[in-house]
Specification:
Layout lengths: L6 H18 L5 H7 L9 H15 L15 H9 L2 H9 L14 H12 L12 E6 L5 E7 L3 E8 L5 H24 L5 E8 L5 H10 L2 E4 L1
Parallel strand pairs: 3-4, 4-5
Antiparallel strand pairs: 1-2, 2-3
Length: 226
């Protein structure tokens, strides 16, 4: 029984992938692209969605690269063209999608971005699954997006980060977000007949205090103080 994902969610996911990957310079990395795109996309007709999106894009922006190349088969030159294109503007005017921001609606801070990139690059410190490669901003069918994630053959590690100065309610929010993403990832696997281990970790830059540690323990979330 595959997960059902709405058309607008798929469009939003694909455009978030385009805009964030382009900003980070990752569209030319095929393996990184595969890890960032939601696993559940394989259970729906993404090709049909992409065909419709490309028709809309081509009508308004005939000079735009063919975004369907993201689904496979694009050459390095075509991926490089996607990398350089202004997908944020296309998303706004072709589909009414807002510019990429954090869930709170405010631009991401440099401290938050640096910490999540550290997390994705330091799987050994976080006890990531053996053989997995970290990636930032992995999307889930619920519409959530983890700061970092490590997807192994039989294990997954989902990570949220909060830099120094994060308030108590922000830390609590991160813990509950991790619980939600753990449940969504487990559901994805269950629908595919798998029972992989899914672990979650909150990375912080200063000790969050006993109340947060107690809540994290109750929710089965690991807290890592960098």
């Amino acid at each position: 029984m595959p997960l059902e994902i709405s058309r607008i969610d798929l469009q939003r996911t694909l455009f978030r992938f385009l805009t964030k990957s382009a900003r980070k310079g990752e569209l030319v990395d095929r393996e990184a692209a595969a890890r960032r795109f939601p696993a559940a996309a394989g259970s729906v007709d993404v090709t049909e969605i992409a065909d419709g999106m490309q028709a809309t894009v081509s009508e308004i922006y005939p000079e735009a690269p063919d975004l369907r190349g993201l689904l496979g088969g694009a050459s390095e030159r075509e991926l490089a063209a996607m990398q350089a294109f202004d997908w944020v503007t296309v998303g706004i005017y072709a589909f009414g999608l807002p510019p990429t921001k954090t869930l709170s609606g405010t631009p991401e801070s440099s401290a938050h971005r640096a910490l999540k990139e550290w997390a994705a690059s330091n799987g050994d410190a976080l006890n990531a699954p053996s053989g997995s490669t970290g990636v930032t901003e992995r999307w889930f069918p619920s519409g959530d997006e983890s700061d970092a994630a490590f997807i192994g053959e039989s294990e997954s590690l989902i990570v949220e980060v909060r830099p120094a100065g994060a308030e108590t309610h922000e830390l609590q929010q991160a813990l509950f977000t991790l619980v939600k993403m753990r449940a969504v990832r487990s559901a994805e696997l269950s629908l595919d007949g798998r029972t992989d281990d899914v672990r979650v970790t909150l990375v912080v830059e200063q000790d969050p205090g006993p109340a947060i540690h107690q809540l994290a323990e109750a929710l089965r979330v690991t807290v890592y103080v960098r």
